[in-house]
Predict the structure.
Amino acid sequence: MILSPRNLATLLCLALSSSGAVAATTANAPAPATPPFAVAEIVRFDHPWAMTFLPDGRLLVTEMGGALRLFNPVNKHSGTVTGVPRVSHVAQGGLGDIVLHPQFATNSLVYLSFVEPANGRLGAAVARARLTLDAAGGGALEDLKVIWRQDPKKSGDGHFGYRLAFDRDGKLWISSSERKEFDPAQDMTTNLGKIIRLNDDGSVPSDNPFADRGGVTAQVWSLGHRNILGIAFDAKGQLWAHEMGPQGGDELNRIEKGANYGYPLVSNGNHYDGTPIPDHSTRPEFRAPVITWTPVISPAGFVIYDGAKFPAWKGSGLIGGMSSKSLVRVEFNGDSAREAERFDMQRRIREVEQGPDGAVWLLEDGTRGGQGWLLKLTPR
């Protein structure tokens, strides 16, 4: 049965919702801050989406069309890693995120998210593989195995989410967006509109909040999300996630075990056709965002900085802004957060990463125009 947002009001998932929500802080667009950094354009990639550093300082960069690149920042050589799974490149997805296993130095395991086709429908998937590198500056993925899939697959080309992160205990976290269909975010028979927590082999941890329910429900850590394009852990191990709102109402959320964040029953934005959605303040049983943005920033990419090159940023969240063409710095204070600075980058920022030496690296969004620059930020 297809449920409408109004009918979902009677399906609050009972124990899934939690009381005690705190009103969101609205971030009004500040005057652009004077950047404390210089920007260097390093190299262009074709529809780049994500990146991660290897221990030797080289970068793995995903291109939405299905190519995985190995880039050396020292000599500017860009090679190709073969063995990538079959990918469907659509408007908002293709080859997505890439992260290293916490014990990569000994096991060489990498994790990739991608849009997987099946029977005319699409869904995000996550695969694990062993990375081998060659002397020519390229490499290969071996023993690749898909360990997670969005269920069910849907028609349409948007809202995959599929951001990846490992926590300090070696658990794999996946953002699974609601595929532009609203209702799945509250439907516990799907893993859409949820944040997922798994063991590193794709199995379900026994201490997940809904583990006793089995199936895809057991994978769920939190629900009621829209389009989650950034997840990051702070120094205390707390997970933070940002998501795109509808028309208004982008969010930064503090992710709590078993919590329901309310979408599509509540949002600080409205539907694109102008239909209003009740604000979070009207439904305190749902977790409210700690920051909400209207006008939106279109957040994408997220790192919580702990480097030495920008000491004033230590402990801050750095979020890429696509429609806002910005880099947004967020300061945390316990369970709360605020936008501290916004830097005008004059280009859509898709991905944010911290380099081994503390420099900040950005990927320009390539979904509009194809080519996207790899940018390096260093102190002035």
